[in-house]
Design a protein that fits this description.
homodimer; 461 residues; alpha+beta; BirA Bifunctional Protein, domain 2; Rossmann fold; 9-stranded mixed sheet; 5-stranded mixed sheet; 19 strands; 32% helix; 21% strand
Chain lengths: 461, 461
């Protein structure tokens, strides 16, 4: 095999980077489960007609075919899923008779899109979604719930940059656009969705040219889109624009409830705010919409998005409304890892390396290691009986904090007991493998933020 | 959406079944990490020429193409990986400069094969692999290590059927086949690999017709293949066949060392034995080989296989020898789950449902839930303020063991304190959300074996 070339758009992590990802996934899972979300995985493939129902994403789908497919191929017309929402909607309809509603699920899985790779956009990427889906009806309070759960999960990961969860409501903006006399609401929404990506002066022109508004209407849309607040003061500012109807009022009430409901999870590192410019373009949301930007990484776009669907899925007779939020784990982490802004302090899980004095004592060393493992301490035994200095360097290179020395019994040197050395401090003490444990923070690799160069990285694990 | 049809070969699990899978994956990961194996994930796709190097699996590969691929498509010629060994070998060569050897990794990921679906054979399936790979050399003791680690992981899953890890050594059987004068060793190995799948009387005929042996030689091969022992007594029986050479002796020594080394992990539920019929057909192993059968599910074939490669990977200048073992998680679990032979007692992670008396008290109920969650207790709040009997049935249907009642303040009934009810026993006690915790075994769903029909696990609904 000649040295393989990296494949653009298919990021891979080194073991110490993978620890950071695992740490994030573990945290997400833990918080999701504490809130009663059950794990679901769907198959990676869906029928093409299912994947292409929305039309717009067709060019991004990876189609599968068996290399030696025969005529009666029963797996023709399948492709890899490009998100976790389409497969989940299908799962809900397919297994509805065996699920209990409202149904809370989390889904942490890969998805694929054949789009041009760029910063934060990959052809293979990991998503972490939570959704709550009801049968016929779904209480509005679940909109608040999914935002709070994701906020709690992300806010606990203190090595990540600060984030801003931006929330809006489709009823509010649709009602407003109707109120000013816009006729092509979808077109307005599509243009408004470009705010932040396209220079502000261009938006007004697009609203006129592409959404059929006059200059005054365009100006009103921009004034609405400028409103943002971390409390419910946005309500007054919207009303001050003088465009009101039942839909606007319903949207204001819902958005205020979500902002109020998230007050307890807001912090300096995780800001929750009403942002009236959030539209979510072509997505079929019908109420609450979410986006999330990461401080210093605004160019990545939203790393965590979602909202309320009045009909996440339907089998014709029954409608399943849903609300959910989807974290782009790869989009959030891969740029941070690539720039070395977050890192783990080990490339192995091992907290202890048991030094091997000679091959004959491997059995005794294995027993020491098993004693430590029985107490929950990840341990490996040296692969070869090299000089002790070399074994210590082996541990150092991997970030293993402790080296265990079995008793040495040769003429020149005699130790009567087992000893364990913290190779970071050099401290070496007598120890008993049946009872010794390292400090709790040394049991697992620690993830540190390298973002403030003058600050010593905070310890977080 | 009309009701979707299941897709043959792409198994999906219901939430309670997924708990069983997660439980197994958590156990595997925990044991792998305790032994110092680091997590690695590789991208799901590899260049086709890499996937097809072995030739034999070509018809099973799923090829990818973008639905609207253009001429300059830079992702032409890629396919989904069909195992985790080929991508890991590529990963080792690609990142060799950034890895420390010997390198221990575990990899729990999906793989895809376009083969005809049948019991235990899926088009999408989850594998859990451990491998240790060296640079230029790799100590033999690692052969023992991977067997012990996988045995420790599987033996701890007491709800699984008993298993039998069958170990052989390629040097031993190759040396033996050479010793009896066979010239086409690969052909002999390919036929021997069919033992158990093809009637015994057919094997002898195949050895003559397909591997060019005479009747005496074929008989000798069958005599060797009949030898099995859970201790090292196989050594004497092989020697009694009177075919000896250096290769046979080396193989005997290695196999005896692996069997001895696994003595401490052998139990009635997890038997480790030398089985001289194990050949691993076309796989390119060069020493130790592993297979594993599950009692009562012999028809699935081996659920956990692996062995030693003198050259897992090579970049021309450096060779990377490896030894590993791969667990077919889907092959092992999906049939058990499908037959209802293992099950979890909940469909949600929640241990507590906080009853909701009216919509106005949702805030107070959310606070109770957050207090419980802060103590590590998965908790959900009732979705709607239904009659209490309905809320208890909601919990029952999902297997949630406890319902929390906030104080009721109406004329007819008055409770002065919070109460929590074990809905399995009916026991209801006063409780403080800041301090109450359920028994440890109720914190997470319990996986039970349904294999003995009289031993029905606690029912939920």
């Amino acid at each position: 095999m000649s040295k393989p070339n990296p494949m653009s758009g298919f990021p891979e992590l080194l073991p110490d980077q993978r620890f950071v990802e695992l740490h994030v996934l573990d945290r997400l899972r833990r918080v999701f489960e504490l809130h009663g979300f059950a794990s679901v995985e769907t198959r990676s493939v869906e029928p093409l007609d299912e994947l292409l129902r929305k039309g717009e994403t067709s060019k991004e789908v990876y189609v599968l075919r068996r290399l030696q497919a025969d005529a009666e191929a029963d797996d023709a017309g399948i492709g890899l899923h490009f998100d976790l929402t389409v497969p989940f909607a299908r799962y809900v309809v397919e297994y509805a008779g065996k699920l209990d509603f409202p149904f809370r699920r989390y889904q942490i899985q890969k998805a694929w899109r054949g789009e041009r790779p760029q910063d934060g956009r990959y052809r293979e990427f990991t998503q972490a979604d939570i959704d709550i889906v009801g049968k016929d009806t779904l209480g509005f309070h679940h909109d608040i719930e999914v935002a709070r759960v994701m906020a709690e999960a992300l806010a606990g990961l203190s090595f990540l940059p600060a984030m801003r969860l931006q929330i809006n409501n489709r009823k509010l903006i649709q009602g407003f656009y109707q109120g000013i006399g816009a006729t092509n609401i979808d077109a307005v929404m599509r243009v408004i969705d470009k705010i932040g990506k396209v220079p502000a002066e261009v938006i007004a022109t697009m609203l006129v040219n592409e959404a059929g508004l006059d200059d005054t209407q365009a100006q009103q849309c921009l004034e609405l889109a400028e409103i943002r607040s971390t409390d419910t003061s946005f309500v007054k500012r919207v009303r001050a624009l003088g465009v009101g109807n039942d839909l606007v009022e319903e949207g204001l009430r819902e958005l205020a409830a979500v902002i109020d409901g998230c007050a307890s999870v807001t912090s300096e590192r995780f800001v929750v705010e009403a942002d009236l410019s959030i539209a979510r373009g072509l997505d079929y949301y019908t109420g609450t919409v979410f986006e999330t930007v990461m401080d210093g990484f605004e160019g990545l776009g939203s790393i965590c998005s979602g909202g309320r669907y009045d009909s996440l899925a339907s089998d014709g007779r029954t409608t399943y409304p849903g609300v959910g939020i989807s974290l782009g784990v790869s989009r959030m982490l891969v740029p941070l890892l690539g720039k070395g802004m977050v890192a783990a302090d080990r490339s192995v899980p091992s907290a202890v390396l048991v030094a091997l004095l000679d091959e004959e004592s491997r059995g005794a060393c294995d027993e020491i290691a098993q004693q430590l493992r029985a107490n929950g301490i990840p341990t490996e035994v040296a692969s070869a009986p090299q000089k002790l200095g070399k074994q210590i360097r082996y541990a150092e290179r991997r970030g293993i904090p402790f080296v265990w020395f079995p008793p040495i019994e040769d003429g020149s040197h005699e130790a009567t007991s087992h000893q364990v050395k913290d190779i970071r401090t050099g401290e070496q003490i007598d120890a008993d493998a049946a009872t010794w444990t390292p400090p709790g923070q040394d049991l697992t690799p620690t993830v540190t933020s390298q973002m403030a160069p003058h600050q010593r990285a905070e310890e977080l694990s």
